[in-house]
Design brief:
The protein is α+β, with helices and mostly antiparallel strands. It has a single domain, classed as tt1808, chain A. It has four helices and 15 strands. The strands form five sheets. Strands 4-7-10-11-12-13 form a six-stranded mixed beta sheet, sandwiched between helices. It has a three-stranded antiparallel beta sheet with strand order 1-3-2, with no helix packed on it. Strands 5-6 form a two-stranded antiparallel ribbon.
């Protein structure tokens, strides 16, 4: 399946994007272009479900929030992303609005799919780090690993890569701890 790109000669603004009808179809604004993706695979949703349970329970213990896609993250006037999962600490609860998150979450997570791999690794990584997301997690199902980037580590050098029996930890979400291989289907 392929991701649908709108007419690249028509650049949408944030205001135009927000006037679109509500939908459960993954729909993002990336560099002013409307991007629609097919529904995720079973493997993608299994990984997302497992991560959400871990994030949800750890967030409850801190008073923070774990937000599951589809829910918008406003990057700027030409970019509105829908990370698969976000964590917001209690200090960032004010960023949550009825129409999305307006401010950098502590963690944004993207699970790679063949149709979005390039976008998640390039355009979206740059956007998340520019916004000031404390940690950007890229979950790679074929490689069965989790790569974490931070504004300090930059776009090219990950802060850390977790795989197999490694215990996944976060510098901004210390109550979240799990073995990397527990989120991937056998």
């Amino acid at each position: 399946m392929k991701t649908l790109h709108s007419n690249p000669s028509k650049i949408l603004t944030l205001e135009e994007f927000l006037q679109l009808e509500e939908t459960n179809t993954p729909c993002e604004l990336i560099n002013g272009e409307l991007i629609m993706s097919p529904t995720p695979t079973f493997e993608h949703q299994t990984i997302l479900g497992r991560l959400h349970v871990l994030f949800f329970h750890a967030a409850e213990s801190t008073g923070g929030n774990a937000c599951l896609s589809p829910f918008d993250l406003h990057i700027d006037e030409r970019n509105v992303f829908q990370p698969d999962l976000m964590y917001l600490s209690p200090a960032k609860k004010t960023f949550i609005t009825p129409r999305g998150i307006k401010g950098p979450p502590d963690i944004a997570v993207e699970i790679l799919s063949p149709s979005n791999r390039h976008t998640d690794i390039s355009d979206k990584k740059e956007g998340y780090l520019r916004l000031g997301v404390s940690e950007y997690w890229i979950v790679d199902p074929p490689r069965k690993n989790i790569t974490i980037f931070t504004p300090a580590s930059g776009e090219e050098i990950p802060l850390r890569v977790f795989a197999g029996n490694d215990e996944v930890t976060s510098t901004v979400f210390p109550t979240l701890r799990f073995k990397a291989d527990t989120i991937f289907p056998a």
